[in-house]
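Practice problem: FLYWCH-type domain-containing protein
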Amino acid sequence: MFSIVESKRKKPVLLFDTFRYTQDKIVGTTIYWKCEDRSCPGRAVQYGSAAPNLKKSHNHNGDENKCKAEEFKIAVKRRIEHSPQPVKRIYKQELTSLYTTSPQIAPSIPMFHEIKNSLYKTRNDSYPPAPHTVDDVKIEGIWRKTLHDSVKQLSTSFNDHWFMDGTFKSCPHPFYQLYTIHSVNNDLSTPELYTLLPDKNGSTYTHIQFYDYVTKGWHFRLNNDLNHINHPHFYVFIRAIQNDYAHNAATLSRHLATGTLPPRKKLYVNRNARLLNLEDRYQAHTLTLEEYFDKVSRLVGVKKF
Ligand SMILES: [Zn+2]
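Answer key — structure tokens:
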């Protein structure tokens, strides 16, 4: 087991077999590490990114707990950088998981109040300041990209159904509404497009809204990722959307390979079948558009549209 962390002075530190090393020199792709204790002859060598080898033994014992505590802090910080979840919650989850696997390390782990300044600094450093007005919005760098640095079309079939939906709660300031377009293919609903609207747009409030139930699970997941905060920080929201994309891509790839679907409430499955039936009737011109809308909205329990 080894990991490379950062010292307070931002220098790389190797944690290897309960010892701490600082970088001695780099020759080509070979990294030479020396024991952090200057009076110790302990040395390790690392070829490329492979696991290091001990070259010269130490004249003292290692400190396993100190190394583990450091690895813990790095793991928490990595998650703070990549997850929009609250800092304290991430700390708690990591602490619980550490205690489950290695309870003997717990006494060496700093308490939240002892490292919270450094953790909040990590959080602040990982998100740019939120824009105040729509004109301030200038999304740069990693914030423009999805996980794989591409805008990949998730939809794979011409038989997809498309649903549009708006939500206010998880929409970040200074926007008014988060508007999403989801494709539904074989009962798997996948968001395809996220749009932030600056103000109330009349046309989004037409008969389309009654498809809300299709996207309920998605709303719940997004709100949960955002810790049910109303109008989250703009970049925390973007991070949640990036994570959402990764989650959906993973679910969809599993679905396409095996046909597996996440379980859905029976109510929704039944409704979906009846919705499709209404749509078939509309396509076959046995229902007028007005009748179609009327039946659909009654089906999903919306009185007015
Ligand atoms: Zn040493």
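Discussion: The helical segments are 64-82, 87-101, 112-126, 216-225, 234-258, 266-283, 289-299. Students who identified this feature from the tokens alone can consider the problem solved.
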